[in-house]
Design goal:
The protein contains 5 helices and no strands. With about 130 residues, it is an all-alpha fold.
């Protein structure tokens, strides 16, 4: 088995055994990573690659938004935030604006970290 195949097998098993909460955290992390890559590509003048990474981030955030259960107040509060992030990503892509991307990167990292803390609290509360 090659290293690539072993990694893919591990990743697939890891995803299958992750909770929905952990998957949300990973999606925030993946979106942030794509934004960070876009910033790097803009600096390098690789605008096609920057565009691709911004689109990937938009898709991830749109997926998070579409997966919200609107019956919950928190979902109703998160949806406009996700919409804002998507709008800002589109603006950043049109303008190739690093400042906007840095703002969005900060938000995505903050939400990822918040989810990670919530997961820890949830896991701890299950053992009490």
């Amino acid at each position: 088995m090659t290293n690539v195949n072993a990694y893919n097998l591990y990743r697939d098993q890891d995803l299958e055994t992750s909770s929905n909460y952990e998957l949300v955290s990973r999606l925030f992390g993946a979106a942030a990573l794509n934004v960070k890559k876009a910033i790097t590509y803009i600096h390098e003048k690789s605008l096609d690659k920057a565009n691709l990474n911004m689109i990937k981030a938009q898709i991830i955030v749109r997926t998070l938004n579409e997966s919200l259960d609107k019956n919950y107040v928190i979902s109703q509060q998160l949806s406009p935030i996700y919409d804002y992030i998507i709008r800002r990503l589109v603006q950043a892509n049109i303008k190739k604006d690093i400042a906007i991307l840095e703002e969005i990167y900060g938000l995505l990292i903050e939400y990822r970290d918040t989810w990670n803390e919530a997961i820890k609290i949830f896991k701890i509360s299950q053992f009490k």
